[in-house]
């Protein structure tokens, strides 16, 4: 079995030395820093779940390369059931963590890489599939954490890469006999600084003349020339200053942590390059990654988050003695409806999955349903948060800190005036948990992560058979 234990994971991660900056300071030890520690704790929990027999059906799979049991995070879907198990993994890890499963983004690139490298080798005689298969065997054998980056910094969005600072998109600077030199930066890279490996895909569908931007590769964490700049926000400051984890909404696992990854003349050996100049295949890489990502991250993962929000909101309604009020029952029901609609689309995406391209052995989710899962979540998540805030009341944002309960001068007041149907401490802790969802980073994080609504709308419009629909209408209208 190629699955490592939590202790082995911690031991390995303690050796990583990324050049990382957060809040203006260099981070020396990932395991000691209050922000990066959350990423490691969340990832450690994923390793723990993977070895837990009650979740093995969801969290593990059989490698199609070696037949060994591996983490599903490193598996390539071999059939529709595999795709469905993958989305179950996304939902389960969200329910258990309340933040990212940091093994997801890289995993969501693997099927698209397997499919497109197979296609390129078949069509144009490259050897990308062989390189990719060797790479996949390596990460499966070592049970590595792989981050995935497609989002370039993009600069002026109205301009192509060559019409502005060329480093706005990651690209090849030089081709050498032993490999390539790349420069540019990827942004919003989830958990990357604490991952063993990074997979980098092109972030735009390249045109003629943009061959240097059609580049896909894998690179180990901390390679020479790579700098990481972590996100920094009020929640980062809260984590830095809280000396007691009780005062943070998601104490152990924290926020979804990302970073800007800068590539300053980074060397990538040829055996880790999976595309270099084949512009006509960039769109296929992107589409295959996007539909996998939108089904999991956009659909199932956020359903797991909504499960937590519904649970917390129902509890607060009960704590406030309001759980039987008819409008509250109605609002909770609407939250359930919204989350189940996203889940239904994600499940449909898996059920309607197909081998793509035929003969590759790789199964991909249905494009329309995966984009719908994400689109429904984009809209539904905001509505869910609005209901949660409505039911929790103003205290969701005005609550004093739980630490006041330990201040002898005022603790009696806080106990007396912040109690409800339950003692103040219980209520305050659940409100703090909910505040992390409704008054924090998760709204924008959910709608932008895996692409804003316009991206999904464009796909739906492009792939829908409007001609067929027009014909149906014409036939019945006798035109
Ligand atoms: C929490 C979080 C985690 C993430 N994790 C990852 C990750 O692990 N790996 C990764 O690669 N990415 C990741 N992302 C990136 C995510 O996919 C992007 O945020 C998303 O695709 C939008 O890109 P952007 O942030 O650059 O916004 P923009 O592209 O600037 O979009 C903002 C708005 O501008 C519009 N817009 C942009 N360009 C145009 C145009 N040319 N014409 C018209 N309208 C336009 C968009 O439709 C949108 O409404 C993550 C994002 C978040 C928030």
Q: Any idea how many domains?
A: 2
Strand coverage percent: 5-15%
CATH class of the largest domain: Mainly Beta
Largest sheet: 6 strands, mixed
Task: Please give a quick description of this structure.
The chain is an alpha+beta fold and 479 residues long.
Please tell me about this protein's structure.
The chain is of the alpha+beta class. It folds into two domains: 6-279, Butyryl-CoA Dehydrogenase, subunit A, domain 2 (Beta Barrel), CATH 2.40.110; 284-464, Butyryl-CoA Dehydrogenase, subunit A, domain 3, CATH 1.20.140.10. Helix content is 50%, strand content 14%. The chain is built from 16 helices and 14 strands. The chain has helices spanning 6-13, 34-51, 56-59, 80-97, 104-124, 128-142, 234-241, 282-319, 326-351, 367-392, 395-398, 411-417, 424-438, 442-448, 453-463, 466-477; strands spanning 20-22, 25-26, 60-62, 69-71, 146-149, 171-175, 179-190, 197-200, 215-220, 226-230, 258-269, 273-276, 354-355, 363-364. It has a six-stranded mixed sheet, with no helix packed on it. β1 (20-22) and β2 (25-26) form a beta hairpin. α1 (6-13) packs antiparallel against α2 (34-51) and α8 runs parallel beside α10 (367-392). The longest helix is centred in the middle third of the chain and has 38 residues, at 282-319. The radius of gyration is 23 Å and the shape is globular. The model has no long low-confidence stretch (mean pLDDT 97). The chain binds flavin-adenine dinucleotide (FAD). Residues 105, 148-151, 154, 157, 186, 188-190, 256, 258, 445, 448-452, 454 line the site of flavin-adenine dinucleotide.
């Amino acid at each position: 079995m190629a699955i490592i234990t939590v202790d082995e994971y911690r031991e390995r991660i303690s050796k990583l030395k990324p050049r990382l900056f957060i809040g203006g300071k260099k981070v020396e030890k990932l395991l000691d820093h209050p922000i990066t520690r959350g990423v490691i704790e969340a990832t450690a929990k994923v390793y723990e779940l993977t070895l837990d027999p009650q979740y093995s059906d969801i969290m593990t799979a059989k490698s199609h390369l070696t037949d060994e049991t591996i983490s599903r995070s490193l598996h390539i879907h071999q059939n529709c059931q595999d795709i469905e198990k993958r989305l179950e993994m996304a939902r389960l890890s969200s329910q258990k963590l309340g933040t990212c499963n940091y093994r997801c983004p890289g995993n969501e690139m693997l099927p698209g890489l397997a499919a497109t490298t197979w296609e390129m080798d078949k069509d144009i005689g490259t050897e990308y599939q062989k390189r990719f298969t060797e790479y996949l065997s390596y990460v499966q054998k070592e049970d590595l954490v792989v981050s995935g980056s497609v989002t370039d910094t993009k600069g002026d969005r109205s301009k192509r890469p060559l019409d502005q600072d060329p480093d706005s998109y990651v690209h090849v600077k030089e081709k050498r006999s032993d490999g390539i030199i790349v420069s540019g930066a990827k942004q919003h890279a989830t958990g990357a600084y604490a991952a063993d490996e990074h997979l980098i895909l092109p972030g735009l569908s390249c045109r003629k003349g943009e061959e240097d931007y059609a580049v896909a590769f894998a690179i180990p964490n901390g390679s020479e020339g790579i700098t990481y700049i972590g996100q920094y926000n009020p929640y980062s400051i809260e984590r830095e200053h809280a000396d007691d984890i009780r005062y943070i909404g998601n104490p152990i696992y924290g926020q979804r942590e990302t970073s800007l990854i800068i590539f300053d003349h980074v060397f990538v050996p040829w055996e880790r390059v999976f595309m270099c100049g084949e512009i006509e295949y960039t769109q296929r890489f992107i589409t295959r990654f996007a539909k996998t990502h939108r089904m999991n991250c956009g659909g199932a993962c956020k359903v797991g988050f909504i499960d937590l929000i519904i649970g917390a909101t129902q509890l607060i309604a009960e704590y406030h003695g309001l759980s039987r009020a008819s409008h509250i029952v109605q609002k909770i029901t609407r939250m359930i409806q919204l989350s189940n609609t996203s889940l239904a689309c994600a499940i449909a995406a898996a059920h309607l999955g197909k081998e793509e391209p035929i003969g590759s052995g790789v199964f991909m989710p249905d494009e329309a349903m995966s984009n719908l899962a994400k689109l429904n979540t984009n809209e539904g998540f905001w509505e869910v948060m609005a209901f949660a805030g409505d039911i929790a009341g103003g205290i969701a944002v005005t609550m004093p800190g739980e630490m006041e309960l330990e201040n002898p001068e005022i603790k009696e007041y806080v106990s007396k005036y912040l109690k409800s149907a339950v003692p103040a401490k219980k209520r305050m802790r659940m409100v703090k948990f909910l505040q992390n969802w409704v008054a924090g980073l998760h709204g924008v994080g959910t709608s932008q992560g895996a692409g804003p609504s316009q991206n999904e709308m464009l796909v739906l419009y492009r792939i829908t058979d409007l001609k067929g629909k027009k014909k149906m209408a014409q036939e019945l209208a006798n035109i």
